[in-house]
Amino acid sequence: MEYQTITYQQIKEQPEINALMERGNDTLGVMGYTEHSGKHACKVAKCAGEILKALGYDKRTCELARIAGFMHDIGNCVNREDHAHSGALLAFQILRSMQMPPQEIACIVSAIGQHDERTGVAVDPISAALILADKSDVRRNRVRNRSKANFDKHDRVNYAAVSAKLSVVPEKKWVHLEIELDEEICSILDYFEIFLQRMLMCKRAAETLGLQFRMHANGHKMC
Description:
About 55% of the residues lie in helices and about 10% in strands. The protein is of the alpha+beta class. A 4-stranded mixed sheet has the order 1-2-3-4. The protein has a single domain, classed as Hypothetical protein af1432, CATH 1.10.3210. The mean pLDDT is about 95. It has 9 helices and 4 strands; from the N terminus they run ααααααααββαββ. Strand 2, helix 9 and strand 3 form a beta-alpha-beta unit.
């Protein structure tokens, strides 16, 4: 088989991937989950690529991180439960049909399959960058529930997030997450009660990249 160099732009324009993502996002909307649309996918893809670029990884590795970032949630089309694993299997089939080299498919499938905090862990730079990019995308406009009275705990945390910025400081070997929360909606303690597992996952992902994970919430150093 003659393998093809698949680009992030091709993945963004691939109808099958976009159909799976849109269906998954619609399904999660019915279930009351936050937005997992193309906007989230693009944001995660861009961030994952930028993390590795800042650390000096080669262009192709950064491109694979962007591809994994864009595709990471397609498993929601099957079911929210175990979506990382079903998404990895879907990605394998799609990328294989596009004739991507097997070694690259393996890297992307592994990253997608490891991105959920309940079952996953960073195993290489691509999976680590995906985890950091995905778990740092906390923002108000991901909340789809329009009634504050009916917010669940995840709605409340996301709606309280006025801003969230992830940055890499290579010279100090830090990756830094800075969050501004509206504490009238959600306290810093509430944030950690809900997202502690995600932050621990980010800490371990940072360590995989040889970095220390640092976080500030409303100017307070949390870790």
